[in-house]
Amino acid sequence: MAAAAAARSSMGLTLRLSRVIPDCRSCPLYRFKGCLHSAAGSQRTGSLDSLRTISRHLQTSICLYQAEEGSSNAEDPDDVVNVVYIDRSGKRIPVKAKVGDNVLYLAHKHGVDLEGACEASLACSTCHVYVSASHFDKLPEPEEREDDMLDMAPMLQENSRLGCQIVLTPDLDGIELTMPKVTRNFYVDGHVPKPH
Amino acid sequence: MSSCRVLLSELKPWTLGKSKWTRGLLEGISWSGKTFLSTSSCPKVCVVGGGPAGFYTAQHLIKGRQDVEVDIYERLPVPFGLVRFGVAPDHPEVKNVINTFTQTAKHSRCSFFGNVNVGKDVTVDELQQAYHAVVLSYGAEGNRRMGVPGEDLPGVYSAKDFVGWYNGLPSCRELSPDLSCETAVILGQGNVALDVARILLSPLDILKKTDITQPALEALAESRVRKVLIVGRRGPMQVACTIKELREMGNLPGTRPEMVAADFEGVPEALKDLPRPRKRLTELLLKTALEAPGEKELERRGKATKVWGFRFYRSPTEILADPDHNRTAGIRLAVNRLEGSGERAQAVLTGEVEDVPCGLVISSIGYQSLPIDSTVPFDSRSAVVPNSVGRVHQAPGLYCSGWLKTGPTGVIATTLNNSFDTARSLLEDIDSGKLDVSVAKAGSQIVSSLLEERGVKAVTFSDWEKIDSLERRRGEACGKPREKLLTVEEMLKVART
């Protein structure tokens, strides 16, 4: 996926999201109240509503493009979120991320094998991850659409979430995200068919 | 890497007379001592079928080894299979996966050959000679028949053909379904059945902004269908659809649900023991079917002009014809009861029947794979290629992925895992030596010359991009993501420009 992600970033057509919550401070739309997120007020508290609005407007918001340039100069220690991805073979991949980074696109950026077939539009379950117990409760509740897609994911567990819906906040520092090992066919209720 | 082949063949005659040392040098030992023009070839794999299974298998193979080259052969001039022809027009986000497939196709070690009919233009045997391994990923183009009298009457269609029709599959262009009746009966309660119901009942305002074909849009504009029944043999806890699609039906503008309360007896009590996905689905179904709606929902339902509902415990036994005109007038349904519970519950006939008047019957009881080449093992009972983790039984060098491997159920995520499994088996076999890649294979060079002899010209990925670009321009002109080309002839014409 790293090659794919690298190729993807060179395609002007597809969206690049290394951050879902952009740094609005430098965006002209925010300053002149032309942006719907400025109306919402907060930018990084990760309030449920603004997250929802952001994920819905993912495809159209101008803030998206601003996010690419904004805050890239910040190596601000308060901004750093340490993440560990654990891939299907059990290998630990530590990543130094930033507040506001999206777990799926962060994975792509670092060559972690997390597929995102529908590109964060809650239309698949290929970015399914298990969240470390100590951080799971710190995540905002999934919206109904995410739960619907999670239902389709094989080997669903109590600590399952979709990676494309996890946005890093300071209290998620140290979070560990494990890729489910499953690769067999599955059914809606999690039933695993006997080989025949 | 194909350049290394050409160079080698050119060097060979020249080296014959030289000393062993120079020959060794020329045959590919570079100054650093690392072979670059190696006599051991890069593994060449051929994938038959350019849909999600084919592309995901190719992606995983290319990622798994730096020397694997993959060629994808597809019968139609256009790639992407069911992502293009199966996914409903009002589910564009599901089609985002095309971006991933496009990257795979454009990878230096991947090539796409459209307009090549494997089994007819080139045999699987010939492919096995040309490649180290062949992966069959051609899916399920056939359809399970109901096997009842009247099945071939005008007005009866398979969901596969109906979906193909509104999605622009060239072979379904002439379907011209008759939408002049009031009631439509869909057999089957999976996601495809719900897609069909949704397309039949969606407001035109929604459909006209999708990539649904123009002829389908026009036909639906004239449609008189107002009531859609989605019929299943078993009960509410056995529906095969998933929650997202059920939620969409419940929220479909201009429609209201109408079901039979008695069908849900015993269901609320059974909820607590269900695994989460089935539990949430059943809860939503109960809510949609039985719960007294709140004020807002009541108002919405009051304004609805169209009705839909699940009907349970019913199996088709006959399609009834209009005595005066040769067309569908109704369907005879046998009444069932359930033996057992959960996924394994069986429908058992009670002897009762029920006739439902309707003018449109769409059977959505499953796709089915077909054998495309007599040399490939095929289990006609289960309609899959017999295999273990993608390795075809008794056929070394032959693999399968996607629906051909596991049967025609599952969404894109299922196919992703399934294809990665097959790719992993193949890569393991290369590593272990079970798959011998020491002898060079000519791959697409040989196949291209065979095709040329037979008058078949393949469509490359950049040819497809011309088609893609034209479709999107045409779509822009009418507010749609694309306006699809509807015939192979048109596609080839554009590809050749």
From TrEMBL, chain A:
Protein name per its UniProtKB record: Ferredoxin-2, mitochondrial
Tell me what organism the protein belongs to.
Fundulus heteroclitus (Killifish)
InterPro entries the UniProt entry points to: 2Fe-2S_ferredoxin-like_sf, 2Fe-2S_ferredoxin-type, Adrenodoxin-like, Adrenodoxin_Fe-S_BS, Beta-grasp_dom_sf
The record's comment on protein family reads: Belongs to the adrenodoxin/putidaredoxin family.
State its cofactor.
[2Fe-2S] cluster
Q: What does this protein do?
A: Electron donor, of the core iron-sulfur cluster (ISC) assembly complex, that acts to reduce the persulfide into sulfide during [2Fe-2S] clusters assembly on the scaffolding protein ISCU. The core iron-sulfur cluster (ISC) assembly complex is involved in the de novo synthesis of a [2Fe-2S] cluster, the first step of the mitochondrial iron-sulfur protein biogenesis. This process is initiated by the cysteine desulfurase complex (NFS1:LYRM4:NDUFAB1) that produces persulfide which is delivered on the scaffold protein ISCU in a FXN-dependent manner.
Please, which domain of life does this record's source organism belong to? Eukaryota
Q: Which PANTHER family match?
A: FERREDOXIN-2, MITOCHONDRIAL, FERREDOXIN/ADRENODOXIN
